Amino acid sequence: MLRVTLLALALGACGQPARPPGALRPGMTEQQVVEASNNRVPDRVVERICGNETAAPFPCRIYVYDGAWREGRYHPKLSVVFEEVRGRWLVSQWL
């Protein structure tokens, strides 16, 4: 019975769209993202060049949050993409 329950929960979580932590919105700073996620530390931070398929590729920083059970709820995997704007890393999108 426990296996059936766990399978049902896992399948249900897979079908749900990724929700941003807290009140994530474009233009937020890194500190604001940390605060909005209740001080959850990203599992990985990746720095790379984004927009390679465009005329103007740009450096970006990606906070990767792996899916995890926290506080009795499943939090799906989430990637928050930051662009450097006038020397500050700001949220441009999330996946």
Helices and strands in order:
Elements: H1 2-14, H2 30-36, E1 44-50, E2 58-65, E3 68-70, E4 73-75, E5 78-85, E6 88-94
Antiparallel strand pairs: 1-2, 2-5, 3-4, 5-6
Oligomeric description of these chains: single chain
Give me the number of helical elements.
2
Helix content: 10-25%
- The order of strands across the largest sheet is 1-2-5-6
Strand content: 35-45%
- State the end-to-end CA separation: 34 Å
Write down the Rg: 16 Å
Index terms:
two-stranded antiparallel sheet, single chain, disordered N terminus, alpha+beta, 95 residues, 38% strand
Q: Would you kindly provide a written description of the structure presented here, covering whatever features stand out?
A:
With 95 residues, this protein is α+β, with helices and mostly antiparallel strands. It has one domain (18-94). 21% of the residues lie in helices and 38% in strands. It is built from two helices and six strands; from the N terminus they run ααββββββ. A hairpin with a 2-residue loop joins β3 (68-70) and β4. The longest helix is centred in the N-terminal third of the chain and has 13 residues, at 2-14. It is globular and about 45 Å long.
Q: What's this, in brief?
A:
The chain is 21% helix and 38% strand. It is α+β, with helices and mostly antiparallel strands.
